[in-house]
Amino acid sequence: MRDFSTDHRWLSINTATVRKSQGQDLPLPQILDAVARHGIPAISPWRDQVAAAGLKAVSAQVKALGLKLSGYCRGGMFPAVDPAGLAAARDDNRRAVDEACELGAPCLVLVVGALPGALAGKAAHKDIARSRQQVSEGIAELLHYAKGQGMPLAIEPLHPMYAADRACINTLEQALDVCDTLDPGRSGALGVAVDVYHVWWDPKLQAQIERAGRERLLAFHVCDWLTPTTDLLNDRGMMGDGVIDIPRIRGWVEDQGFGGFSEVEIFSTGHWWQRGHDEVLQTCIARHRSVV
Amino acid sequence: MRDFSTDHRWLSINTATVRKSQGQDLPLPQILDAVARHGIPAISPWRDQVAAAGLKAVSAQVKALGLKLSGYCRGGMFPAVDPAGLAAARDDNRRAVDEACELGAPCLVLVVGALPGALAGKAAHKDIARSRQQVSEGIAELLHYAKGQGMPLAIEPLHPMYAADRACINTLEQALDVCDTLDPGRSGALGVAVDVYHVWWDPKLQAQIERAGRERLLAFHVCDWLTPTTDLLNDRGMMGDGVIDIPRIRGWVEDQGFGGFSEVEIFSTGHWWQRGHDEVLQTCIARHRSVV
């Protein structure tokens, strides 16, 4: 297991972590400058932030600053109620692959979607098995396109509390079942993003990380689970402030040969998004060295 | 699959569902009277409510009203940081078994506990595997006692969002692994409580219900998952107001021969606990007939 205690060469910042600074939106160009200023070598940007700043401009800035990417957030949201919706998701996901290529991302992270309409508060149906079938079909189709572009796809199993509205792939085992079906040869074109927030509770976690192996472990995300957690989406904790044994999980991942970045992804309306982004980045560096 | 549409003979009310009426605490004796007045045949009371009203008095009232029980809530909370804590949990669980016997419950429901201290906001450690080991040992010890009293134990796998503070058994598969280890003969002394709120998301749910079989399916709880869910504990929905395909899951359970009560367990600070309990019970009856 790598020693993170003396530097932060393996730290990446998911740009949602500093999406807001002191409660105000922080544009992506400022985020990139701040990350580089703190000597953080990598980022994982969100599509909406990239779109707001302009893909070409972001790509140029990333290169000028010498930043690497640990992933691109995100593709997915495959399920729909009709062929037009499925086609729209397909087209949008292809654009996400193209953007990931332009930015030099090592993978496109997939938050696969769930019951259509649920995220807006009104699910069109209750058939999660149907959504899961649409997800498998959507990934299969996108995989064909992404292979052509040389862009690996990383399925991110989301915590079961998001099964209704954000992702109906909810365990690492389930994600790997999809990988085995669609990429039995373990080509490296399809794998998983392991976010400790989503999977820490899983009694089969260690076994499934071993099953994933090096070829399927495409990204590793960290934050922490707070007790109590006051919001299902935006109350993630800074590493060390919660109950997740992050080094243990990182050890399992690295035992498989994973040698990529440790990406900090924290959504925190009440706490970290109220702080200044420099303080947040300094804290990420300190915690990366001490508790990850 | 039984037809629930014409009557409510298989309805049970978990007494937490009407713990409050119009925002005020509703004592258990009044709950029991109201349940009986609505022709609801069964309840599942909580220990704190029973303690407040007095065990003997509650037992007498239950018998006088001709109510049955669908379970007793709850034993468990096994993990602790030291031998004294483990012994205290053991003793308290034996008392819970005794109370369940006095009340004529068909099973004692177990919410097994998780990281010691987490429920109070400060976990004593982050070793969920250690808690899981303590849970297995605690159930093994309690099972010996409960068998002597003739009281079946029903492990309730809780949604993974409770893995830190309430229960580190989080899937039906995991609960059944414990059952298979401790009761390989499927004696009926150890099984599971299937609450749709906790398990609806699980891609392996149908297969694990089949694995459980009639001997292990000791209780069936219903409510609904709302989108959005605004609180991790107390924002459960009334059946039909959320995204859970309850009849499908009930069908799987009944395919195994389950013929017990369908128990409504709703914690709802913002909505149902603000309504009058008669309205809540009427709604439970209506939804039991129409969407369960």
Describe this structure in words.
Chains A, B: GO terms for molecular function: isomerase activity. Chains A, B: InterPro entries: IolE/XylAMocC-like, Xyl_isomerase-like_sf, Xyl_isomerase-like_TIM-brl. Chains A, B: This is Sugar phosphate isomerase/epimerase. Chains A, B: Pfam families: AP_endonuc_2. The structure is a homodimer of 292-residue chains. The first copy, chain A, has 292 residues and is an alpha/beta fold. The first copy, chain A, has one domain: Divalent-metal-dependent TIM barrel enzymes (TIM Barrel, Alpha-Beta Barrel), CATH 3.20.20. Chain A is built from ten helices and eleven strands. In chain A, helix 1 runs parallel beside helix 3 and helix 6 (172-182) packs parallel to helix 8 (205-216). The model of chain A has no long low-confidence stretch (mean pLDDT 98). Chains A and B meet through loops of A and loops of B.
CATH fold-level name of chain A: TIM Barrel
Q: Cα distance, first to last residue of chain A?
A: 11 Å
Greatest contact pair? A-B, 34 and 34 residues
- Return Rg of chain A in Å: 18 Å
* Number of separate helices of chain A: 10
| Strand ordering within the main sheet of chain A | 5-4-1-11-10-9-8-7-6
Pfam family, one (chains A, B): AP_endonuc_2
Domain Xylose isomerase-like TIM barrel (chains A, B): 32-277
InterPro entries (chains A, B): IolE/XylAMocC-like (IPR050312), Xyl_isomerase-like_sf (IPR036237), Xyl_isomerase-like_TIM-brl (IPR013022)
GO molecular function (chains A, B): isomerase activity
